[in-house]
């Protein structure tokens, strides 16, 4: 195992690539994205300090299928060879149980994302996305651009800028160049959709620890 620094925009796995390494984020955030034929990129899920990159390594597959893993917020992660994790997964029941429960929680996250993206307005989705990212980073300061947010939310950059200003005018966040500061978490929670609490409770239930929420 090796601790590494990951840079914003760095691609860890591309569709069809063989998974040779897995990553366990410590202080960084990775988006799981899907790019359509017209070039539209949408976030399918997010990987932070309670998740891993390279889940297929212990699920009988060696490729990332149609998804791409891209570093959203820079920081540190632990990297290890995929075959070593697979060996431990096959021989260590405690590790296997945890990994399978994590997989169930991760599937729940992706499933909720589908419903959220289909039914909720951008203001609620952005509020939820900021809260989830903050929880995983244990920080109310998020280093990212509106352009990057537009890719993650699957909307135009102008829509992200307008929504960010709306949340800022309500006193929930403070925006600056490539940085968003959460200043009123309770207000942001009230502005968010139900999906934030649904996913948080499912992770808490399956993984038996409380996700830090300030």
From TrEMBL:
Residues 124-190 form the HTH crp-type domain. Pfam families: HTH_Crp_2 (PF13545). InterPro entries: cNMP-bd_dom_sf, Env_Response_Regulators, HTH_CRP, RmlC-like_jellyroll, WH_DNA-bd_sf. It comes from the Bacteria. Keywords: DNA-binding, Kinase, Transcription, Transcription regulation, Transferase. One of its GO terms (molecular function) is DNA binding. One of its GO terms (cellular component) is cytosol. Gene3D superfamilies: Jelly Rolls. PANTHER family: CRP FAMILY TRANSCRIPTIONAL REGULATORY PROTEIN, HTH-TYPE TRANSCRIPTIONAL REGULATOR ARCR. This is cAMP-binding domain of CRP or a regulatory subunit of cAMP-dependent protein kinases.
